[in-house]
Amino acid sequence: MSEEDKKPPVRPKPAAKKVVDEKALPPSPKQPVVDDLVTQLKGKLGERAVLEGYINQPNDHLPTLIISQEKWIDVLSILKNEPDLHFTYLQNASAIDYETHLEVVFHLHDLNRKERVAVKVKLDREQAVLPSASHLFAAANWNEREMYDLMGIHFTGHPELKRILLPDEWVGHPLRKDYVALDKEV
């Protein structure tokens, strides 16, 4: 075998990506829904209640609200109890670590109108405290315990805020990006 045969084959360089003019996305058919929600919530709770309202187009045009921490329970209560809103089903609750802050996300569903909304609240990493919504949505009970267990978010007023997945003696919250395991083999 010659020296030339021993060399790995030379692969061609990938072609440069073509620059494509990004066109503005067409308006979402759900934009009036998010606009109406923002207007109603700000009208009832003040301008600082809703920090932002937008459409999550990749997620089937999901209306999404970013709520102030102080108005979290008030917003959830209105979304659930107002007859023209009636988001009574908590479809999913989760937490996300963005390194700069934590975020709690509730996906609510109005089963009668077949409407959905995502409600988010940003939390400080060092003071990750939020009022519990378990009195509004029974499903929030275990979801909040999971967020406490894995992300270290404290839900004030929760009826039984304790670990749900990990043993009570576990140190830390393993889904945080700054988590360091005590046992290197885990």
Describe the structure.
The protein is of the alpha/beta class and 186 residues long. The chain has a domain at 28-127: Beta Polymerase, domain 2. Helices cover 22% and strands 25% of the residues. It contains four helices and seven strands. The chain has helices at 3-6, 31-45, 72-81, 140-151; strands spanning 50-56, 62-67, 89-97, 102-110, 115-123, 129-131, 154-156. It has a five-stranded mixed beta sheet, covered by helices on one side. Strand 6 (129-131), helix 4 and strand 7 (154-156) form a beta-alpha-beta unit. The longest helix has 15 residues, at 31-45. It is flat and about 80 Å long. The model has no long low-confidence stretch (mean pLDDT 90).
Topology:
Layout: H1 3-6, H2 31-45, E1 50-56, E2 62-67, H3 72-81, E3 89-97, E4 102-110, E5 115-123, E6 129-131, H4 140-151, E7 154-156
Parallel strand pairs: 2-5, 6-7
Antiparallel strand pairs: 1-2, 3-4, 4-5
Please supply descriptive tags for the structure shown above.
single chain; Beta Polymerase, domain 2; alpha/beta; 186 residues; 25% strand; 22% helix; five-stranded mixed sheet; two-stranded parallel ribbon
Tell the overall outline: flat
CATH class of the domain at 28-127: Alpha Beta
Tell how many strands the DSSP assignment holds: 7
Global mean pLDDT: 90
**Helical residues, percent:** 10-25%
CATH domain fold name of the domain at 28-127: Beta Polymerase, domain 2
Q: What's the main sheet like?
A: 5 strands, mixed
Q: Tell me the strand order in the biggest sheet.
A: 1-2-5-4-3
Please tell me the CATH architecture of the domain at 28-127 by its name: 2-Layer Sandwich
Q: If you compute it from the alpha carbons, what radius of gyration comes out, rounded to the nearest whole angstrom?
A: 23 Å
Return the structural class.
Answer: alpha/beta
Number of helices: 4
Distance between termini?
Answer: 47 Å
Strand percentage, roughly? 15-25%
User: What is the helix/strand order?
Assistant: HHEEHEEEEHE
**Spans where pLDDT lies below 50 across 5 or more residues:** none
Going by CATH, what is the homologous superfamily of the domain at 28-127? NADH:ubiquinone oxidoreductase Nqo5 subunit
